[in-house]
Amino acid sequence: MNNDTGTLSVLIANNPFLRKKTKIVEKVDLEKVKKLLPVMFEIMYKAGGIGLAAPQVGIGLRFFIIDLMKDNQSEKITIINPEIIEKSEELKSYKEGCLSFPNQYSEIVRPEKVKIKYINLEGQEQEMQTDGLLARCIQHETDHLDGILFVDHISSLKRNIIMRKIIKEQKRHH
Ligand SMILES: [Zn+2]
Prior knowledge:
The chain is α+β, with helices and mostly antiparallel strands. The protein has a single domain, classed as Peptide deformylase (Peptide Deformylase, Alpha-Beta Complex). 29% of the residues lie in helices and 29% in strands. Strands 1-2-3-6-7 form a 5-stranded antiparallel beta sheet. Strands 4-5 form a two-stranded antiparallel ribbon. The longest helix has 18 residues. The relative contact order is 0.18. The mean pLDDT is 94.
């Protein structure tokens, strides 16, 4: 391998690994998570994404990274063992994409605000209440940890169209 992202790469839509539920990160796994982070952030930035969940790069652990690059400012967020403990009744629709679905976007309805419980890299329990794009991203990435993909939130008709496009594009590249 001639790049420093090593053997990790983003798994695409129909890869069965994306459907697996991930394992809780135990204290002993934290070192492993810390080692994976620089590579994961690099992959995410290169692909122009704002969120990346561990299973998307073939790691079956319950964590994800986010960097919204708000006002072109980088702010790295790592969320481990997230649990959504509150969701607002207010819903919002937003055009979502996913690094596992290159160039595919769809309007997805989700709660506008969420409160989550998670642990940080030191293994300390944290809580976060958030709305807007960050809340959206957290819900999308938490879904990944449970083997749920954004296309599961749309009609099967729309989902099939997206899946067909992805398969077509993959064939073109290989
Ligand atoms: Zn995604």
